[in-house]
């Protein structure tokens, strides 16, 4: 079996659904974060095309175009295939295999209880989301993460409930299958070394911890066991797993790395979203961006040119914070509050900064679109690399489950 390369950096995984053009909020919030993360982590970033199908199964025609365009946008803003592994979910079939296996042990109640499940079903009523696949959305997401045994998952607040399911699934998997082999032997010998009194105390603490989730209590359990010179390290591992109500960590529980939400509101001042029709797309060009900014909502108190305004109440100001220099921002604050500048002056100055930053992104996007093979190659080699890792996990998972190996 070929072995995956060893990378000492902490590993993270994240995906995006290819459902249409990205907007500036995605860039400012999510992608800039990815670009920072890729420098210090072993990153797996993928286009979650199967996840797009869970909601768009009735009209999947643009899925492949959307997938390529999404990744083209990543590359255009500076996500770097030399630093991060970029791939397509459906090109790594191990995600589907692990999803199937995890589905065996996932109670329906965990999925039905995800707050966004019923909400989304209601919200997207015309899409008929009364399906097996849509209910299983968090299971597929769990497979995406666990198949790489990732430590961290950068996501927005809306995905945290899904990752909570991932953690529960991992815990259950480890409890069910991480207790095979010599688990019971080590547990018995560890307890014998502790003696009946300490074993009883530990069992009591562990029970309290599992009921309360009290982290301080957990630290105390960890300290007590790790500092006990009578225990072998195997016994320590097994006693800790037992205390936590788990098993050996075949699939480690990942931590969500919360992405701060974008500072950029939509052109009407509400949250930027395609469904509100207030978004500026990353691929909107000079004239469209100019029109959208020039007609953008401002401080509602500034009705006439002579009315002073307050930047903190103005959506345009949020854009200055993201794009403008300190000089420009000072000029805006002073000019707005004294009615020394008009909103159009203010917006045009902003546009100068924005267009300077966006123009090179558009150029890279166009260059990549002119050479679609570049993007295809990035994804083909990224998917290959991802498969190496994913296969190694599946080998262990097969072993743990007692499935026969083909060779
Ligand atoms: N569900 C995520 C979203 O809509 C996308 C996603 C799919 C994902 N699989 C993932 C994110 C695994 C992080 C990790 O934003
Ligand atoms: Fe907003 Fe600028 Fe107008 Fe002030 S001058 S209200 S910051 S657009």
Task: List descriptors.
Tyrosyl-Transfer RNA Synthetase; 3 domains; three-stranded parallel β-sheet; two-stranded parallel sheet; 17 helices; 59% helix; binds tryptophan; binds iron/sulfur cluster
How is the secondary structure organized here?
Elements: E1 11-16, H1 24-40, E2 42-47, H2 49-56, H3 63-77, E3 84-88, H4 94-105, H5 108-112, H6 115-123, H7 132-135, H8 137-146, E4 152-155, H9 160-177, H10 183-212, H11 215-226, H12 233-244, E5 255-258, H13 286-294, H14 315-323, H15 326-337, H16 343-370, H17 372-401
Helix pairs in contact: 3-16, 3-17, 4-8, 4-17, 8-9, 10-11, 10-12, 11-12, 13-16, 14-16
Bound molecules: tryptophan and iron/sulfur cluster (SF4).
Extended strand count: 5
Specify the helix fraction band.
55-70%
CATH topology of the largest domain: Rossmann fold
Quote the beta fraction: 5-15%
User: What distance separates the N and C termini?
Assistant: 11 Å
CATH architecture of the largest domain: 3-Layer(aba) Sandwich
Total count of helical runs of at least 4 residues: 17
Tally of individual domains: 3
Q: Give the helices and strands as they follow along the chain.
A: EHEHHEHHHHHEHHHHEHHHHH
Q: So what's the CATH class of the largest domain?
A: Alpha Beta
- Let me know the CATH homologous superfamily of the largest domain: HUPs
**What small-molecule ligands were found?**
tryptophan, iron/sulfur cluster
Arrangement of strands in the largest sheet: 1-2-3
- In the predicted model, the low-confidence regions spanning at least 5 consecutive residues are none
Q: Characterize the overall form.
A: elongated
Biggest beta-sheet profile: 3 strands, parallel
Structural class: mainly alpha
Radius of gyration: 26 Å
Give the overall pLDDT as a whole number: 94
């Amino acid at each position: 079996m070929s072995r995956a390369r060893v990378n000492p950096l902490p590993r993270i995984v994240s995906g995006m659904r290819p459902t249409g053009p990205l907007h500036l909020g995605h860039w400012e919030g999510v992608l800039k974060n990815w670009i920072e993360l890729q420098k210090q982590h072993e990153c797996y970033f993928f286009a979650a095309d199967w996840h797009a199908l869970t909601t768009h199964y009735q009209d999947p025609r643009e899925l492949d175009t959307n997938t390529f365009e999404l990744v083209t946008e990543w590359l255009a803003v500076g996500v770097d295939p030399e630093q991060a592994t970029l791939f397509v979910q459906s090109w790594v079939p191990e995600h589907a295999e692990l999803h199937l296996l995890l589905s065996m042990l996932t109670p329906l109640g965990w999925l039905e209880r995800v707050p966004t499940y019923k909400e989304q079903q209601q919200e997207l009523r015309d899409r008929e989301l009364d399906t097996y696949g849509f209910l299983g959305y968090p299971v597929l997401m769990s497979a995406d993460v666990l198949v790489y045994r990732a430590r961290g998952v950068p996501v927005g607040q809306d995905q945290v409930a899904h990752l909570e399911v991932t953690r529960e699934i991992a815990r259950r998997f480890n409890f069910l299958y991480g207790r095979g082999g010599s688990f019971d032997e080590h547990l018995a010998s560890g307890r014998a070394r502790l003696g009946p009194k300490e074993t009883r105390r530990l069992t009591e603490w562990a029970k309290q911890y599992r009921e309360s989730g009290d982290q301080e209590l957990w630290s105390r359990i960890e300290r007590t066991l790790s500092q006990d010179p009578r225990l072998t390290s195997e016994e320590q591992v097994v006693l800790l797993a037992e205390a936590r109500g788990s098993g050996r960590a075949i699939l480690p529980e990942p931590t969500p790395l919360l992405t701060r939400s974008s500072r950029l509101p939509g052109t009407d001042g509400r949250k930027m979203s395609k469904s509100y029709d207030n978004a500026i797309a990353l691929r909107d060009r000079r004239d469209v961006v100019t029109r959208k900014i020039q007609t953008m909502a401002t401080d509602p108190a500034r009705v006439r040119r002579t009315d002073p305004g307050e930047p903190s109440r103005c959506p345009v100001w949020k854009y200055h914070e993201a794009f403008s220099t300190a000089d420009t921002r000072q000029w805006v604050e002073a000019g707005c509050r004294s009615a020394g500048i008009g909103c159009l002056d203010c917006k045009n100055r902003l546009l100068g900064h924005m267009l300077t930053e966006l123009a090179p992104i558009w150029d890279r996007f166009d260059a990549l679109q002119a050479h679609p093979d570049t993007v295809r190659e990035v994804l083909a080699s990224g998917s290959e690399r991802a498969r190496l890792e994913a296969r190694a996990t599946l080998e262990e998972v097969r072993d743990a489950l007692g499935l026969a190996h083909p060779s």
